[in-house]
Amino acid sequence: MKLTVHWHLTIQKNVDVCCQSQSERQELINFIEQNNLKVKHILITHAHIDHVCDAYWATQTFNQPLKLHKDGERFIRIADAQAEMMGFNVDGIENISLQYITKDDIIEYGNSQLKVFETPGHCAGSLCFYNKEENYIVTGDVLFRDSIGRTDLPTGDYEALMASIKNNLFNLPENTKCICGHGPLTEIGYEKENNPFIN
Q: Is residue 164, in this structure, part of any structural domain at all?
């Protein structure tokens, strides 16, 4: 997640912050300070443990609530159980400050804006964040280069995921860059032509 976190920091916010050691936390803080940035929002695309495991630390450190879709709160409330199974540390997450965001909300930072898309399918409460002016979308685990998010976990739904991709992401300009939750960047046009998982 380091590449994703660093990219997001250039637009003055955190998305899916997932530090798991003091050295990773310090690296994040150093990056913010060295680039004279101010964290305006702490956003998550969805509340699976690998995307939210250090959200409590981030909210406390940067004095901002965690912004997510209301349907993702169910995962926050069982994060300690998820963490125990997968080896993550989520100390304090039961006390986290939450703020709900939803379809068509606008997240403002500096002179830029992100439009919120509701994109269920990988899990309930999944969101994508679109910046029209800078021509990119943060896709989380909805869409990857040559792949899609898995739908076999609780609240996953393949048909809903296909609808999210086709009705939201694939209506964007083909040269829109996709910042994915895992793996390399991609573009909408490339995925429309080449993604083998999209029917």
A: yes
